[in-house]
Amino acid sequence: MSDRGEDALSISESTARKYELQDPDVRLMLLVRDDDAAAFEELMLRYQRRVVTVLEHLVGKRDLAEDLAQDVFMRVYRSRKTYIPGSRFSTWLFTIVNNVASNARRSLARRKEVQITNSPDQSGSQPADPLERMATAASGLMPTRQLDKTEMGSIVRQAVQSLNERQRMAVLLSKFEEMSYNDIAETMGMSVQAIKSLLSRARANLKEALAPYLQEGIVP
User: Which sign, positive or negative, has the C-alpha torsion 148, 151, 152, 155?
Assistant: First the structure.
């Protein structure tokens, strides 16, 4: 199934030019389209941790999030030749993140465990293409499981995990990625008004979940 963000058929030339001028990450991705390995490495450095963090919140497991992040960057790489900027790069990227996370959750629900069927290196051999090798190698640099440093961080994480999937994704894109309502709406395939309502409900739920700890110091 193709990602909505990877579909460039309806993107006009003027729109593509606008985002090329406005977004330096779009310009990097256009270099990736021309097989610039350094540009691909730079994009991975800029987004790797952010993608893993968002995925960890969406699927609840650090090691699974790191595997899925590898899948995300491989999709970016494999889509490079058809890439036409129709939004900010981060919006396009996190649309892929959202789709990958949704697929993983469906697989978890069906099989109780996830097997990444399109792993680039299941046989143990190295990909021939240098860009693909870089994507695989960079995924190996991702930090292994990390413990939360503070109690508050753990409490907030639990509160975010208590949200439903849509609320959680909207909060992550709003707070961690500082996306606008328009960009979140585009990433999640919803209207701006629906995103505003979704975030309002999410904030109310977070406030309720954190109240015992913030007011009385009660750890869940």
Answer: positive
